[in-house]
Amino acid sequence: MKKNTLFLILIISFVIVALSSLLIIGCGTSNSSSSGSGASTSGNYTLSGKVGTVSTSGVKTFAGNDTVTDIVAIGADNNKALVNPNDDGSFTLSVTSGQPYVLGFFNKTGGIITLLGYLKKGEYDWDSLPIIDPVSTVTDLGTIEIDTTSIEATPSINISTLISNMNMDVDTATLYGEIDDSLAALTNLDLDSNGEFDFNESKNYLFQTYIGMNESGTTATGEIDSMLSGYNDEYIPIPSFFQINFTGLGGGDTRSAGISATLRAPSEIGGTVTQTTSTGATSGNEGWTLFFPSVSTPEVAPAGTYIVEMDGTTYTINNFKASSVVAIGADNNIVYPIFHLTTNEAGKITTVQYKWMKLVNGTPVDATSAEVNASINYEAGSTSSFTQNPFISFFSNANTLHSVNGSGIFAIDISASEVDISSLNISREAIHHIQAGYELTSKVICKFDLY
Asked: How far is it, in rounded angstroms, from Cα 342 to Cα 422?
C-alpha cells in the first residue's frame, strides 16, 4: 500500500490559540491552587515533600535570594497550584490528575523572580511528573535537593516507587522521558521580568514549536481512498521542518497587527540567530500571535534561552528544550493515529475508526494504550484557550470546511476507537482533503492533511 500522507502545519483561525507546545497561562492567587478559569483550592491529587539543601554546583548557599519562597505546579492544560513552603521546607499542594505537571521552585525577592530548580528524575530523563493515570491520590516526593547551577530539583523518592505511583512500566516511563522535554519551559512564569508571576496578572503566553511531518516531500494522492478500504498500517511519518510561534493573551498586553518582532535564539536557526516576523492581532486587539519562519535546520530547535523583542517589550523564555522524538528525520517513538472511513448504503461516510501507531526505528507497530496515554495530551471537554483535543475534520476544497451548525471539528477520544461524523452527510466525492491533529504530552502539535 502506498504510504502517502502529507503532514503540514497549517495555522487556521478557529484553532490558532488551541495549538501549543509551551503553555504559560495567566491566572490565580498565591498560597492556593489556581487555573485559567480562576482560583481554586482543591484537587484530587496531593503532592508533598520537603525542600532540602539549595546549592550552587554542590556548594551549599545561604543567601536570602537562594531561599525557596514559592513552589508552583504547572499543568499541561494550564492548571496551576502555588504554595509557600513551611519554615522547615515541607510543603503540600493539590493538583488535578489526568495530565503532566512541571514542579518549579522559585525565589521571589526584591521585585525579581528566580527559578532555582525544577523537579527532574534523571534515571528516565523526566522533566515533569506524569500524573496522567496514577494508581492512588498522593505521592510523597521525599526530600528535594536543588542545584541552582543545573536548575535541577532532585527528589529522594525511589524511581521504581515513583513510576509505580504513576502507573507506568519501565518502557512507558522511558518513552515519556523522551517526549516531555518541552514541558520544562513551563517554568517561565514571569516572561516580561516585572517581578510578578504572570498568572497573578492574568497574562497568558504561549511559546511553541510546530513540527511538520512529510513522508515524501510532495503532496500525495489516494490516501482517502485507502482509508475507505482499511487502515494504511505502513504509513511512516517523518518530521521535515519546524516553526516557532509566540502568542500573548490577556493582562492588557495587546498589540496591533503588523508590528515587527524579533526572535533571538540560543544558536542558529535556519542559518541565523535572529528571525523577524510581524504580529497577527486577534479581534479587538485582545491578543496577538507571532509566526516566525519555518526551517529545516538544525534537527531540533536549539536548547537554551530565547528572547522575543516587540514594540519596546522584551520577553525572555529560559530553559527551553525540544524533544528528539520529533527531530528532523526522526523515526523512533513517534506516536500517531491512522484512520479508516466507513460508509452506509447511500455511500455517505458515517464513522471514522482510528487506532494509534508508534514508530520503532522506522517500523510502524501498534501503540499500547499505556503508550498512547503517556504520549497524547487529551483533555475531554476542555475550555482552555491553549488546549486542543485530538481531532479530525473534512474539507470540500482547499479552504472550505464541511460543517454542521458552524462546526466541523470532531474530537477524537484516545480511550475510544471511533467517532460518528454522520451529521456531515458527505460522500467520498465531496471531500477534497481531511485534516487531523493531535497534541503530544510535551505540548508539541502534530497536524496534517490527508489527501
From this structure: 10
pTM surpassing 0.85?
yes
Grouping H, G, I as helix, E, B as strand and the rest as coil, residue 27 is coil
Query: Is 342 in the same domain as 224?
Result: yes
Q: So what's the pLDDT on residue 352?
A: 97
Stated as kind and residue range, the H or E segment containing 434 is strand 433-439
If asked whether residues 48 and 62 sit together in one domain, one would say: yes
Gap between the Cα atoms of 326 and 333, Å rounded:
9
3-state secondary structure of 163: helix
* Residue 71 and residue 84 in contact, taking contact as beta carbons nearer than 8 Å: yes
> What domain range includes position 99?
27-194
- Please give the grid coordinates belonging to residue 305: 534561552
Tell me whether the omega of the peptide bond preceding residue 298 falls within 30 degrees of 0, making it cis.
yes
**Quick one: which of 451, 337, 438 has its CA closest to 6?**
451
Report the CATH number at residue 304: 2.60.40
DSSP reduced 3-state for 324 = helix
The Cβ of residue 223 has, within 10 Å, a number of other Cβ atoms equal to 21
Q: How far apart are CA 428 and CA 421, in angstroms?
A: 13
Name the phi and psi angles at 7, rounded to 5. -90, 125
Q: Is 408 exposed, middle or buried (0-12, 13-18, 19+ CB in 10 A)?
A: buried
CA dist., res. 113 & res. 188, Å (int): 10
155: amino acid identity, one letter = P
Q: Please, where are the H alpha helices in 152-246?
A: 159-165, 170-179, 223-229
Residue 162, burial from CB neighbour count under 10 angstroms (0-12, 13-18, 19+): buried
Identify the H or E element spanning 371. helix 369-375
In a 3-state reduction of DSSP, which class is residue 374? helix
User: In this structure, are 353 and 409 located in the same domain?
Assistant: yes
Cell 538544525 maps to which residue? 298
Does residue 7 lie within any of the structural domains? no
Which pLDDT score is estimated for 272? 97
Evaluate whether 46 touches 94 at the Cβ level (below 8 Å).
Answer: yes
* 30-36-37-41 Cα dihedral, nearest 10 degrees: -40
- Average pLDDT across each block of 10 residues of the chain; the chain has 451 residues. List them in order: 33 32 34 36 87 81 73 86 94 94 95 95 95 96 95 96 96 96 93 93 85 60 86 85 89 88 97 96 80 95 97 94 92 94 96 96 94 85 66 95 92 94 96 89 83 84
**Tally of residues, the chain:** 451
The alpha carbon of residue 399 and the mean position of all alpha carbons in its chain are separated, in whole angstroms, by 26
Determine, yes or no, domain membership for 245. Answer: yes
Q: Which residues contact 309 (CB under 8 A, 6 or more apart)?
A: 261, 262, 264, 315
